[in-house]
Amino acid sequence: MSHAWVGGSTRQWRRIRRAVLDRDQWICQLCGKPINPQLHNPHPQSAQVHHAEGKAYGDDPAQLQAAHRLCNQQAGDPTRAPDPAPRPMTRW
Ligand SMILES: [Zn+2]
């Protein structure tokens, strides 16, 4: 038996997403405001699930949090950040 990633990933993801939104009570964890379940993609205030540690960490619900689409976009994915992390540097 091989992994059932391809066929089941979308359905699985919907379940995870729903569970995360319910757990966070449809409150955006990035701005602290409620998310309207009536709104859908691509509405900027629609519900999305934010990867707190970046997508590289996978779909572990512990790493996921409810967020507005817009807030999620602004936060971005830390593992894909285009600009390098600020380097703490001591000037001599
Ligand atoms: Zn928000």
**pLDDT < 50 runs, ≥5 residues:** 1-5
Give the strand tally: 2
Strand residues, percent: 5-15%
What share of the residues lie within helices?
Answer: 25-40%
Major sheet:
2 strands, antiparallel
Average residue pLDDT: 81
Which H/E pattern describes the elements? HEEH
Q: What is the 3D form?
A: globular
Features of the shown structure:
single chain, 92 residues, alpha+beta, two-stranded antiparallel ribbon, globular, disordered N terminus, binds zinc ion
Question: Would you kindly provide a written description of the structure presented here, covering whatever features stand out?
Answer:
By secondary structure, this protein is α+β, with helices and mostly antiparallel strands. It has one domain. It has helices at 5-23, 69-75, and strands spanning 47-51, 64-68. The chain has a two-stranded antiparallel sheet with strand order 1-2. The radius of gyration is 16 Å and the shape is globular. 18% of the residues are buried. Residues 28, 30-31, 33, 67-68, 71 line the site of zinc ion.
In short:
This protein has helices at 5-23, 69-75; strands spanning 47-51, 64-68. The protein has 92 residues and is of the alpha+beta class. It is globular, with a radius of gyration of 16 Å.
Explain the layout of strands and helices.
Layout: H1 5-23, E1 47-51, E2 64-68, H2 69-75
Antiparallel strand pairs: 1-2
The protein binds zinc ion (ZN).
Zinc ion binds next to strand 2.
